[in-house]
Target: 4-diphosphocytidyl-2-C-methyl-D-erythritol kinase
Amino acid sequence: MRSYTLIAPAKINLYLEILGMRPDGFHELAMIMQSIELADCIEINANGTDNIRLHCNHPEVPLDRTNIAYRAAKLMAEQFPECFAKFGGIDIEIDKRIPVAAGLAGGSTNAAAVLIGLDLMWNLGLTQSELQELAALLGSDVPFCIAGGTAIATGRGEILSPLPDLDNLYLVLAKYRSLGVSTAWAYTTYREKFADTYACDTSTIQERSTKLNSGALVSAIAHKDSKKIGKSLYNDLEKVVLPAHPQVEQLRQAFQNQDILGTMMSGSGPSVFALVESLTQAQQIKNQVETTINNPDLDLWITRFRPTGITVEN
Ligand code: ATP
Model:
């Protein structure tokens, strides 16, 4: 049986607003997500056993049942038991290039790749929305990772509304290698500090969510106005992550001091990105920030916006 190699891109948040609490214990969010070219590579092979086996080249990625790529394969085996019985177990090989626990949806995109890979391997012919429904059972960012591109994400992040592609922008992405931020910690801390700002009823949540649709960033994206996009970046979680991690604040400031379109922390952090208009500019900013911060623990990448989510290589 043939194997599948999938490219699983990371995402950044151009916008992340926390609107309130949901009855299911998750936060009600209004976000704009963007796929980027920085990606993991996932290979899926039938292994002729009854087991799902996982391999990864990154020491911080768990290789047990807590790995979200494993959970994605398990979910598919439970949903389509006749296929699992017919085709047997699989080996999942993760070539991890996306930094871990960085606010870049590294795990979520691996899970999305496994769903798409098994759909192909088992000839299921699932539609994008069927794949996204399964994805929502695994995590809030997984549905976005299936289709990728540029999209408004509301609800827990699983209600998606695509926006026009923005394939013209570059970014310099930075993260301290030894620093990871737990998404759960960031949201819990935000709730402890800012619960009084939460919308309490569904109509207010709806109203605030709709405001994003008619807001400056969506209009800037529609008009491909890079300068306005840079000025409209927003992330509520900076309010808790930056005070807790002064070196992230310092990194954010180092970008802010450069000639860039805008800078923001992605998701729950601690990765920070700076938007620029060209590759040459990205290289200059990367060199300058590297020199200013001068810390061997700081990793920097140059990447660009990507118009798609998971793609199949072979
Ligand atoms: P998100 O932006 O979706 O909240 P993140 O980018 O902040 O996620 P991940 O890289 O997905 O964070 O990692 C979060 C934690 O999930 C890690 O600390 C790791 O232990 C665990 N994990 C489980 N499966 C994976 C996976 N396939 N890749 C990376 N981390 C994984």
